[in-house]
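Please review the protein record below. Let me know how this chain folds according to its tokens.
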Amino acid sequence: MCALVAVRDGGVEQSCGECGWLLWGGIVAGVPDADDEADFAAALDEACWRRDQLAVEHVAFADDRVGPTDRDRLDGLIRGRVRGEAERDAVVREAGEQRAAAGRPVPWVVLGEAVARLVRGELAAVGLVELDVAGVRTVRLDTDDEGLVLVGEADVRAWPHVVAGLPGGAEAGFVLAGGVGTNPASGFDPDTVHHALDELPGWLWAPGVRVVTLRRVAGWRLVDRVARTAVARADGGTDVSLVGSAEDVPAVAARLARRAPSRDAYHLAVVAAGPSGSVESAGVELFPAGTVAGADVRRVLRIHPPPYPVSELLLPVVREDGTPVITHAVPVPAASGVEVTFELAAPGRPRLVDVPPVDVAWSFPAVCGGGHLDLVCVVELGGPAERVAARLARTRRLVETVEQAHPVPGALRIGLVGYADHDPAWRAFDGPEPIVTHLHPLGPAGEASVALATWGSDGGWEDPRVAAVEDALHAVAEADLGWRAHARRVAVVTAWRPPHAAPADTDDSLPRCPAGHEWPQAVAALAKQEVAVLTLLEPLARTDAATGTHATVTWQSITAARAPAEGADLGEAPLRLLHEHGLVLGVGEGYPPLATVSPR
């Protein structure tokens, strides 16, 4: 309550916006006389009475806990002389006009805008501060990693626990509504409001938190001041009125959250043919960022099987960064494809209509199947004819097995190198000895299989302990086989005997290569070209200790300690070796069971 009248020049009057008391007016000259004092006393009495009477009317209207006895007690708190019925009716009408002015349509758009900004990541949180006759209810709105709005538990605090020194019962409402009565200091100390805000959850005042105060009472002066001060203290805030609205604020917030624009774009992960026949992952947009979810928000696509065999199709929905959201499994359709319908019925919940999701571990690689594979099969053609025939049959099965795991045209190319034994009767002046008798550059797998069908044993063999493996490895490293720069490079040696001894070997019982080739040099050259060497080995012809040790050491060095696949055919162990090194792929490993998509 303003208790002083300031004198200003100019004759312009101005009153307090809260209580209506005159702050300054025209010039008053001289010492106030008895009439001036009487006028002042009458005006002060009128202002005090009017303020307290308005407070009582607002409390009696808004708080259904106030009964006749409470009303009588509140009437007894009103300052000033007793007014007549006409004056009291005028205050009742004024209170109604104040409530009507505050009871304009509920501005849920303000809350909706705050929720939308929260979803877009522009806010750290939204704080809803609901003020009513009983106290303050605070609710925090957050988002999870998927951008979905989370409505927290309400923090409810009664007014006596918020405003220090507030009386109990109906008198509390009287003070909150601006009444002074017999306690002139209540509700007017500015520190009272700031102390009240200190009693509210501290996260409201953190950076990035948008505070929305929602007042369910009108004309309650201290409540209005708490709301305005809270907005001013917050990092950002808005004060709105909920007078006349019976809607539950958290329920409205949850409803608005369901209608908030999505933060992320959602894509269907598919495969597409890349350059040179590789298979690359891709994403077909289902719902762009900013889409408002609803039962009628749908996208229809025509899906087709991928260009390689799969047992079922996975339809993973991913965010724009490739993070999986939900995955569905469907039967493999015919080549002509089938239409499927996705819907975004709720924020962050895209799904395939009428198909339950599956729980699968799935990743979103940039290139499926490791891209391209260049495979060179190195085959020993020396030895007994039946052994060579079995070796060639094993190599053809290898080619067929790897081709089945890489059915995309252009993804796989296969080359062949066949080598024979050194001829002890060969003379140096006759020229280089033709040890590598067959060389087929990298090309389609089918052409390699046809070429292998024409090969056979190269005849005699002189030493059951060693063979010309080093000559063949030098050919793989030096010949123009057509390695692709971007492809994975693998050489598989199908052999019976290890290479000749290298100069560094201390065992003089094993012969050196007659042509002067050294397998360590060939292995180093292949490593520099990033060619991995694997082996399919038959049992040794000689089982003495020296031959066995030499075979173990050399093969381990040639394959960089990769375990050799030993056996007479492509049994479990050889297949496991090929699988471990990516030559044989399981479902979802190299070429994932994803669909291709065509326009509708």
